[in-house]
Amino acid sequence: MCGIAGLFSNKSVQATVIENMTNSMPHRGPDAAGFYTSADGTVGLGHRRLSIIDLSSAANQPMFSHCKKYVMVFNGEIFNYQEIAKELAITFQTHSDSEVILEAFIRWGPSFVNKLNGMFALAIYAIEKKELYLFRDRLGVKPLYYSTQEEQLLFGSELKSLLPGVLSKPVINKKAVYYFLHLGYIPEPISIYQNILKFPAGSYGVYDGNALQIHSYWKSEDKVEASASLDFDSAKKQLKELIISSVQYRMIADVPFGTFLSGGIDSSMVTAAAQSISSKPIKTFSIGIKDSKFNEAEFAKKISTHLKTEHYEYQVTEQDALALVDQMINAYDEPFADSSSIPTMLVSKMARQEVTMTLSGDGGDELFQGYGMYNWAMRLNNPLLQANRHWIALLMKQLPTRYQRAADVIKYPSHDKLPSHLFSQEQYLFSDKELQSLLLETPNESNPIQHKFSTKRALNPAEEQALFDMHYYLKDDLLTKVDRASMQFSLETRTPFLDYRLVEFALNLPYEFKVQKGISKYILKEVLYDFIPASYFDRPKWGFSIPMDKWLKTDLRPMVDKYLSEELVTKAGLVQWDKVNSLKTAYFTSKPYLYNRVWALVVLHKWYYTFMA
Comparing C-alpha atoms, which of 347, 382, 543 is closest to residue 460? Predict the structure, then answer.
């Protein structure tokens, strides 16, 4: 795991620019820093290294190919690099996956990316041809930003890494503001800045100094087969084998590692598989917030005891979590409203005291129908409800809070926008209608997100919603959250559920294997229960959560008062002050479920006054 940065310009570039780009993210690579500048000075590459595989300096980057005609910077891990090395049948100078990647590219060209099983964002410069290649992994586990403005290509692992190379001050992307307030994150391909984009997952690009040509090599919707015809017992057996294989791949490391263990289904599955493979107790990490109803530490402890792991439980106070609010907002470079990033940062900080790499359970909910919004997707498919949704919602608005929230979900603007609306309202964020009156400037350009996907097999509404989440929520919220939170403390996090073999298998499981007898994630739970008794999971799903509603009314109230004051809201010029004021009044007096809307506006304005004012 590392940080990469680069620049390809039509004129000579000062070496200090690429150094500043790279060194803007020392947390991504505390073990080494390296730089390359082409002979004509038009291309620069930078690398910050967090050593995980082959800890020797020989594996530092930028790395040159054996023939010296190619140079590479690489962020991530390739878990099947040993098999690829055998296929190449050449003598290697290191034991690193980096060297294997570079030589594989030379042997097979850009199509080599289809052989990679891993998480990666990488750049390879062909010195003689003067071509730069960019690659990003299938699911977008590793981040990659780029810009082609002002006759140059810039790229980097974080938004902040591009800013030293940008010739003019970045301008806010108003479309990004809309989607941030609607979803709580900014979806690929846009970023908070105009002319800086997120490189698409499952794609590679070629830049020759004039234009960047981007090619897709993997899409989840393309992997949905025409039929899903496995019997349950065979499917369960294959799923178990795939999970163990994926976890075993992701245990390859030359540093100490462990797992995040929240006590939920996904992290418990990953931990159970890892412990079944390991010859000694693996390290597991959980966190609990004292005096909070969200504390799941006792459940994680019970599971660790059953699995006989070496367990580390961190009990922190709300003040410990609150102390990270500023760091959380700064770490993401652009507005990011997922407050679970705070406990994720806490557990990462504490895990880093013991290990350099961890495994997480991200992806299980999207693959196996784990979210409540998927039930809503099925409910809203009812033609009678669709036809009468507006007056039903009007009636429910007169009922207690729980029904008022449901009314917001039911009152979707159109079927075409249902996936983003459903997600937005499940997260207590702003609807499209609310944003039309809240924003000072409503973007009228083309929609950057795709709501419907063409597949060989017709998907039901819940499956369609899960596919939407894989494209956006998983990648641009959950994986972004974990990447930034863990890398703030130089901790690598790997995601076994996102092994592309497992993803493709799960996409083709019959729906009734995932949801059966009203039980979500049914087949995954059946695999888990081979390792841990089902009784251990007889409780509501919480995960790493914090009491944001309580905080905004107590400890974070000064932040609300400051950043949502008439003076600062008006000066920023992003939203209507009278709408913000009405929202605050409703939240503090009678509608506690509006807390995430308030939090999103606080984050937006704090970001603005940190980075733009």
Answer: 382
Reading phi first (left if > 0) and then psi (alpha if -120 to 50, else beta), residue 116 is in beta
Q: What is the 3-state secondary structure (H, E, C) of 415-482?
A: HHHHHHHHHHHHCCCCCHHHHHHHECCCCCCCCCCCCCCCCCCCCCHHHHHHHHHHHCHHHHHHHHHH
Q: Is the peptide bond before 540 cis (omega within 30 degrees of 0)?
A: no
Give the start-to-end residue ranges of the domains of the chain: 2-218, 222-368+470-537, 547-613
Cβ(465)–Cβ(422) below 8 Å? yes
- State phi, psi for 251 to the nearest 5 degrees: -90, -5
Name every residue whose Cβ is closer than 8 Å to that of residue 364 and which is 6 or more positions away in sequence. Answer: 265, 266, 269, 370, 497, 521, 524
Burial of 384 (0-12, 13-18, 19+ CB in 10 A): exposed
Does pLDDT of 207 surpass 60?
yes
- State residue 444's pLDDT score: 73
- pLDDT for 543 beyond 60: no
pLDDT value at position 168? 80
- Inter-residue contact 100 to 88 (CB < 8 Å): yes
322 — pLDDT class (breaks 50, 70, 90)? confident
Which of 20-24, 81-85, 447-451, 552-556 has the least mean pLDDT? 447-451
User: Which pLDDT belongs to residue 73?
Assistant: 98
What CATH architecture does domain 222-368+470-537 belong to?
A: 3-Layer(aba) Sandwich (3.40)
> Look-up: residue for tokens 């390296």?
34
| Cβ atoms 122, 73 nearer than 8 A | yes
Do the strands 43-49 and 63-64 form a parallel or antiparallel pair, or are they unpaired? unpaired
Q: What are phi and psi of 445, to 5 degrees?
A: -80, 180
CATH 3.40.190.10 fits 2-218, yes or no: no
**Is-contact 448 187, C-beta < 8 A?**
yes
Q: Give the C-alpha separation, 197 to 144, whole Å.
A: 9
Asked if residue 88 has pLDDT above 90, the reply is: yes
Q: Among all chains, which residue has been given the structure tokens 């995601």? A: 495
- The Cα–Cα gap between 4 and 36 comes to 12
The amino acid at residue 409 is: V
> What pLDDT is stored for residue 408 in this prediction?
86
Task: Decide if pLDDT at 446 tops 90.
Answer: no
Residue where the block lists tokens 């498919």: 381
Beta bridge partners of 155: 6, 146
DSSP-assigned states of every residue in 512-528 = HHHSBTTBTTHHHHHHH
pLDDT bracket for residue 541 (50, 70, 90): low
Q: Which residues of 9-24 are buried (b: 16+ CB within 10 A; e: fewer)?
A: beeebeeebbbbbbbb
Tokens 């097999």 appear where?
457
Amino acid identity for residue 422 in this structure? L
Lookup result for tokens 């009044």: 585
Task: Using the predicted structure, report yes or no on whether residue 306 has a pLDDT greater than 60.
Answer: yes
**Tokens in use for 124?**
């390879």
